[in-house]
Write a structure and sequence with these properties.
- The chain has 132 residues and is mainly alpha-helical.
- The protein has a domain of 87 residues.
- 70% of the residues lie in helices and 0% in strands.
- It contains 5 helices and no strands.
- The longest helix is centred in the middle third of the chain and has 24 residues.
Length: 132
Amino acid sequence: MKVNFYSNLKRLKSKSLIPAYAWLVLIFAVSSIPHLRVTFSNIVSMDKIAHFSEYFIFGLMFKYGLYKNDGSRVKNIITVIVVTALFATLDEIHQLIVPGRTASVYDFIADFLGGAIFSQIYEIGVKSKRWL
């Protein structure tokens, strides 16, 4: 399969991706809140569930936007995985400079899995022709 870098970048400018990009801005804005602590009595993993969920939603919006623009399954899977990994990395690096926030490889993993797992769930729905 021949990969045309310019063509792939052009796909990322589609208007159908605006909701996904707006969601990323929201994630970035929340990550910018200093000393943000979300506590739930005895639920230690709630932080990871929140990370997973926010990127799961991103995966939903991003994958849907990509399919509205181009139905190529392989390109869309790779694009979601790469963009999710890239933004999750940037988000964790950004948190290093926000007072009271820390970067965590576990948060990155939760973020990445949220986007990647939704990507695969969406593929199952598309293949069974129930979604899209």
